[in-house]
Amino acid sequence: MSSHRSSSRASTITxxxxxxxxxxxxxxxxISGGAPNVAQNVLVRVTLADGTVxxxxxxxxxxxxxxxxxxxxxxxxxxxxxxxxQDVRTLRHLAATLAEVCPDEPAARAGCELGLLDALxxxxxxxxxxxxxxxxxxxxxxxxxTAGDTEHAIAATQAAxxxxxxxxxxxxxxxxxxxxxxxxxxxxxxTQARGVASAxxxxxxxxxGGYSADQALLLLAELAAAxxxxxxxxxxxxxADRLGLLEVARLSSVPICADESARTAADVLWLVQSRxxxxxxxxxxxxxxxxxxxxxEIARSAGLQLMIGGMVEGPxxxxxxAHVAAxxxxxxxxxxxxxxxxxxxxxQAAGLQHDATWDLQAVHAGHGxxxxxxxx
Length: 376
Ligand SMILES: [Mg+2]
Known about the structure:
This protein is α/β, with parallel strands linked by helices. The chain is built from 13 helices and 16 strands. The protein has helices at about 60-65, 70-85, 90-100, 105-125, 130, 150-160, 175-195, 215-225, 240-250, 265-275, 285, 290-300, 315-330, and strands at about 15-25, 40-50, 55-60, 140, 145, 165-170, 200-205, 230-235, 255-260, 280, 305-310, 335, 345-350, 350-355, 355-360, 370.
């Protein structure tokens, strides 16, 4: 008998349920690559021998990773027999098993890892931020201005400023460079028009790999000519275009951030060794939980800036990302806003205020997100 199997323990995994979690969006999440109007996610429910239940959410984002709701359900159904009967306290062992069964399904792995970790922490009445180190307990997210026309960008910016957001992440790379330059300049003017109160609003660009190196550099030149300060330029070129990334990074005066180019710890090691980027966007759904921790350590050791981000995630996966980032500490950019784009969901999220500020102080066990109809 393996030492991991002992059905008499309270920490034995007795049940893993997976089900589709369709989250209708209040507006299409338009980025370079596509504009989904529903997030087709997966809910993972892990039950332990003593009845403790942990919840996880997988958020496959087809236009970014190729994973789908169907592939996620299949991957987790394949993994289930390997996890049942195991001891939830052997999380790294379980994560390694998941990596073996679904190596190319990071969102599936992340959703399952979160369900397992939530079960473990609820059983021991430990909040997730504490498990990751308890560096901080509060995070304030930026707001994404999705791809669209200039009119949409202006309206979205006005709404964001009214709500007090101080960092706006602008999706570019879906249209022409000229159209993007016009949008970003218009957004900048909105932040200026509002006077001293919003003088500190910072703008981040994210092309999701939608540009060539020449296009990315042209956009930066047009924005520089219009005196629009940009704090960070995320993923200007496609993941496969390493030479393009090197060229943009060499010629850009704006710091470059890798997102799609940083999927694994090996990716981050390459980015560090090539001195290509100044920041990395970490996402649980892009890499899985434990791989994300390895990426964090490499990036931190190399002195890179960190962003915590997400796919199109409901409040559960977003909350888990907030716990990871707050607990580990050191994140200069927080992009955990997709709960703002979700029109309806079945969750009750302790710690989420006004949809974009995370105050995890009140969370006493796990990630603190429950199903509203099961709220005790
Ligand atoms: Mg990104």
